[in-house]
Amino acid sequence: MKRPHLTQRGVFRSKYKWCKSGFIALQFTNHHHQPFIWEFANQHPDREFQKDVRTALINVGYHPASLTERIFHVLRQLLHR
After folding, report:
1. pTM of the entire structure?
2. Which of 19, 41, 65, 71 is close enough to 53 for a disulfide, judged by CB 3.0 to 4.6 Å?
């Protein structure tokens, strides 16, 4: 079965032509992408990169959730399956 987001070799391919195969495009202004970008920055070894990414997210209006809020969000999702 052909997968719309995979090349013939099974490599991820974005719907955006400017995004190379094997990469994923995440938009800072997209509310669904913001938590993932925030977490990615937190895992990055470069502290300046972390700070710059977090600052850029805050500048576009992102408000990171507290750990407690994240836990309750996951629990709500699990309970409503």
Report:
1. 0.70
2. 41
Residue 60, token pair as written in the block: 């576009």
41-63 burial, b at 16+ Cβ within 10 Å, e below that, comes to beeeeeeeebeebbeebeeeebe
Q: How far is CA 78 from the centre of its chain?
A: 21
State the Cα–Cα distance between residues 56 and 54, nearest whole angstrom: 5
Question: Residue 34 CB: number of other CB atoms within 10 A?
Answer: 20
Domain boundaries, the chain: 34-79
**CB distance 26 to 16 below 8 Å:** no
